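Technical note accompanying the year-one report. For the benefit of new consortium partners, we illustrate the data format agreed upon in the data management plan: each record pairs a sequence with a structure-token string. No post-processing was applied to the example shown here.
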Amino acid sequence: MADRRTIAAYDLRVDDYVRLTKRTKPHETLIQFIARVRPGGYVLDLGCGPANASAVMRDHGLRVDAVDASEEMVRLANDTHDIDARVATFDDIDMPEAYDGIWANFSLLHAEPADFPRYLSALHRALVLGGVFHIGMKLGDGEARDRLDRFYAYYSRNELLEHLTGAGFDIDRIVTGEDPGLAGDIEPWIAVTAWSKPDTL
């Protein structure tokens, strides 16, 4: 289920988040993701925030379904990019074989660990066969709230990869790094690109 305290934290700090995520050029992981999606493909931006990534994907010819649980983020996304962003939570994604790609960049780290496997399975079902999945997460152990009252679940590299392969994904590319977040702390992160494959059951 969506964590209301986390959503409220984003609603209150829209401008701060925009300043944090503003870039002069797209991150390499986004460019690599776009290159893997078929031309003109339909992609889900899960937790789109101000929809900066959605706008880049649209500019590269992709059709984008931009969603976020924060009403303020969705409002900003539409005011800034006119991208038809909509309010939706992780639980609302239940459309089989709807997308050629899913961009889940530092959004699923707000999911409760008990819910994480079913969300990954739902996203796998939402992809066409051979669809591209990107996930960005913070590395670590356990779960906690940051100083802004946002909920985080942390995974090690191996734990995250096990969850992804367990949901039916084939791992393609792994990138790691460290960057400051909205709360000001510098934390390690991991970004994984994977492909959907047929269910084995």
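Partners are asked to follow this layout when depositing records. DSSP finds seven helices and nine strands in the chain.
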